[in-house]
């Protein structure tokens, strides 16, 4: 889906709700991630099988595998991610080195 993902970008992935674990936690299934993942969801309107969007920042890229921080690091395939906002480093207003006198 998105091949122009870089470290620091904000990305989203669509996960599927598996079941409600407690009254404030939901177990979700993330595509290309082989483990169940639990997220905090205080709304009581989430149903089993409903898609839910998770948003996080990219912390590591290794070929086609991307590690995204959703509160905990999750490594998924790059094709399952959607770019939300691209990272733009801060610009400097003053030079780092003083001018020679």
Average residue-wise pLDDT? 87
Tally of helical runs? 0
Number of strands: 7
Report the structural category. Answer: mainly beta
Give the amount of beta strand, in percent: over 45%
Largest sheet report: 7 strands, antiparallel
* N-end to C-end Cα span: 53 Å
> Based on CA inertia axes, which overall geometry fits?
elongated
Which value, in Å, is the CA radius of gyration?
Answer: 18 Å
Helical content band = under 10%
> Uncertain spans, ≥5 residues at pLDDT below 50?
none
Topology pattern, helix = H, strand = E: EEEEEEE
Q: What oligomeric state best describes the polypeptide chains here?
A: single chain
Key terms for this structure?
47% strand; 7-stranded antiparallel sheet
Task: Summarize the structure in words.
The protein is mainly beta and 101 residues long. Helices cover 0% and strands 47% of the residues. The protein has no helices and seven strands. The protein has strands at residues 10-20, 25-29, 36-40, 51-62, 65-69, 73-77, 82-85. Strands 1, 2, 3, 4, 5, 6 and 7 form a seven-stranded antiparallel β-sheet that branches. Strand 1 and strand 2 form a beta hairpin. The termini are far apart. The model has no long low-confidence stretch (mean pLDDT 87).
Please outline what is shown here:
The chain is mainly β and 101 residues long. The protein is built from no helices and seven strands. It has strands spanning 10-20, 25-29, 36-40, 51-62, 65-69, 73-77, 82-85.
Question: What secondary-structure arrangement, pairings included, does this model have?
Answer:
Elements: E1 10-20, E2 25-29, E3 36-40, E4 51-62, E5 65-69, E6 73-77, E7 82-85
Antiparallel strand pairs: 1-2, 1-4, 1-7, 2-3, 4-5, 5-6
